[in-house]
Amino acid sequence: MHAFDVLGDPVRRRILELLAEGELRSGEITDVIRAEFSITQAAVSQHLKVLRDSGFATSRVDGPRRIYRLEPAPLEQADAWLSRFRIFWTHKLEALATEVARGKKSRGED
Amino acid sequence: MHAFDVLGDPVRRRILELLAEGELRSGEITDVIRAEFSITQAAVSQHLKVLRDSGFATSRVDGPRRIYRLEPAPLEQADAWLSRFRIFWTHKLEALATEVARGKKSRGED
DNA sequence: CTCCTATATAACCCATCACTTATATAAGCT
DNA sequence: AGCTTATATAAGTGATGGGTTATATAGGAG
């Protein structure tokens, strides 16, 4: 599944927002998502699997719990793809500053 | 259709890349896409419709032709959503520089 | 007016996705 | 061992998306 396909789902985007704050237990994620989207625990677990399989998150076991952590690499790839369009909404000098700040790390991506 | 759903399709991403170079006729887009993806003219036209309906592109009539132009607003929204994660792959000062360069235009998006 | 080119739309099909309910797995407690 | 909690997986379903072929629309050329 391509990074942008993963980001196409609002539940997954929300999970990534939550994980941006720091590590979370599966149950904590499930509670928030269930409150906001009214879906079952199984559905949330399936979204977590998609995030794992696509490299957006990793999990580690803590007793009977799973702790999820954000993995930024696929997000960075998505960001790199979008970077070529940034010239359209920033002034040229500002765009240049952005590129300098990003260290021109991403070339020939996608 | 959410911006990230639109970006989830490789054909549409490729069309956006082409339009980033400048305006193109529907037929020019169709030729490139057909060569790269082996799909029909109708399929390309449907992708162009998705891009129009979701605000990623506009078209104007030139005789029997349609000229397509990139519209950056939805791409900027997608970029704004990703911006909250940039801290994960840039150093803090670099991330700050990026935010300054972007003029902190996007707050509370999505 | 008719024909051709350029493009979009309609109708249909099939695969995939997001969801559900039901069940499995595994750890901790008593 | 048996129960409970935490989480994942299996199986099935309905909706949607992206493709196809066929057709419509509209402008320019003869």
Describe this structure in words.
In chain A, a hairpin with a 2-residue loop joins strand 2 and strand 3. With about 110 residues, chain A is α+β, with helices and mostly antiparallel strands. Chain A has 2 domains: about 70 residues, Winged helix-like DNA-binding domain superfamily/Winged helix DNA-binding domain (Arc Repressor Mutant, subunit A, Orthogonal Bundle), CATH 1.10.10.10; about 40 residues, no CATH class. The C terminus of chain A is likely disordered. Chain A has 6 helices and 3 strands, in the order H-H-E-H-H-E-E-H-H. In chain A, helix 3 packs across helix 4. Chain A has a 3-stranded antiparallel beta sheet. Chain A starts with a helix and ends in a 9-residue tail after the last helix. At the A-B interface, helix 1, helix 2, helix 5 and helix 6 of A face helix 1, helix 2, helix 5 and helix 6 of B. Chain B binds a DNA duplex (30 and 30 nucleotides) through helix 3 and helix 4. Chains A, B: One of its GO terms (molecular function) is DNA binding.
